[in-house]
Specification:
The protein is mainly beta. The chain is built from no helices and eleven strands. It is globular.
Length: 111
């Protein structure tokens, strides 16, 4: 059974940092691309960052230079390091592998 579990969400001040984790189980993790999405209240879910099975990465323009996606295949885990957080980064963050989604983790940036 495929399962994705996100963690690491918290309340942080503008300019702060957080690291989100997405632990996967139930399939051969290392062969798949992994994506982080986010959904802010009243807005559509958007793609934030992706990492291919081979390690290539891609970012939304809004987070380039501030967020870094990485993966540890030995732990079946993908990370999203978020630096220089802004108020507009507040959202529920989800990881996705193919059609499978995690339950999400809340990130709140507030002064």
């Amino acid at each position: 059974q495929v399962q994705l579990v996100e963690s690491g969400g918290d309340v942080v001040q503008p300019g702060g940092s957080l690291r989100l984790s997405c632990e996967a189980s139930g399939f051969a993790f290392r062969f798949f691309d992994v994506h982080w999405h986010r959904q802010a209240p009243g807005k559509q879910r958007e793609l934030v960052a992706s990492i291919a099975s081979g390690g290539a990465t891609n970012y939304a323009d809004s987070v380039k230079g501030r967020f870094t996606i990485s993966r540890d295949n030995s732990k079946s885990t993908v990370y999203l390091q978020m630096n220089s957080l802004k108020l507009e980064d507040t959202a529920v963050y989800y990881c996705r592998i193919t059609a499978y989604w995690g339950q999400g983790t809340q990130v709140t940036v507030s002064s």
